[in-house]
Amino acid sequence: MDAKRILVVEDDESIAELVRDYLEINGFNVKVCRDGVEGLKSVNEEKYDLIILDVMLPGMDGFEILRRIRDEREIPMLIVSAKKEEFDKIRGLRLGADDYITKPFSPGELVARVNAHILKYQRLKSKFSNKEIEVLTIRGLEIQKDARRVMVNGKEINMAQKEFELLVFLAQNPNRVFSKDELFDKIWGLDSLGDAATVTVHIGRIRDKIEAEPSNPQYIETVWGAGYRLRN
To answer: What b/e sequence results for 195-227 when a residue is b if at least 16 CB atoms lie within 10 Å of its CB, and e otherwise?
Structure first.
């Protein structure tokens, strides 16, 4: 089996080399780019199984790289940053990051998260690669599970991996209220790294994409004190 390819976009040489060493020891094929422009160019020219992004980069910051990549393709992306403020974490997740790790970090934990996200992405692709056609339709919202496509009033909407999984789960269980903890367990798994606040971030991103007025949602409703439901 070919080694999974990882792109590390990190301008701090010591951190970049540390991450490269740990990933290569664990069987990954790693490329390091030292600035944002070079990193984005590499993504557009080569194929990777996962991308690790610093936020504060010369040329183009990690948030902008994240936005540009997520607008065009689906690939696991992890942010590794010294920026610890909640605002930065939420911004990264809203732009489509699959994880946000603050520096200093344990290299072993980083490798574990890389493995976990690649495995989950492979399972998702396998899950929707069968030929059985299943389409969920709720008013103007259409979810094509086999093709992994979301349409709103005939317009295709790009969805990140966890956004799609979360939307599918809610659509398969319409009108039922799920707490944030329940949704986190269902989509991310009991052994996942993170917390239920991630659910709120992803719900916000889904609303931004499928709702005509995200502040007045017609599909995914907040049931105060209880959780969320997708109204049929």
So the answer is: eeebbbbbbbbbbebbbeeeeebebbeeeeeeb
What does the alpha-carbon distance between residue 187 and residue 88 come to, in Å, rounded to a whole number?
23
Give the DSSP per-residue string, 10-62: -S-HHHHHHHHHHHHHTT-EEEEESSHHHHHHHHHHS--SEEEE-SS-SSS-H
pLDDT tens per residue, range 9-28 = 999 999 999 999 999 999 99
Residue 169: pLDDT band with limits 50, 70, 90: very high
Parse the chain into domains and list their residue ranges: 5-127, 135-230
Contact 162, 98 (CB under 8 A): yes
Q: In what order do the strands lie in the sheet with 77-81?
A: 29-33, 5-9, 50-53, 77-81, 99-102
Q: What is the pTM of this model?
A: 0.60
**Looking at domain 5-127, what is its CATH homologous superfamily?**
Response regulator (3.40.50.2300)
- Class assignment of domain 135-230? mainly alpha
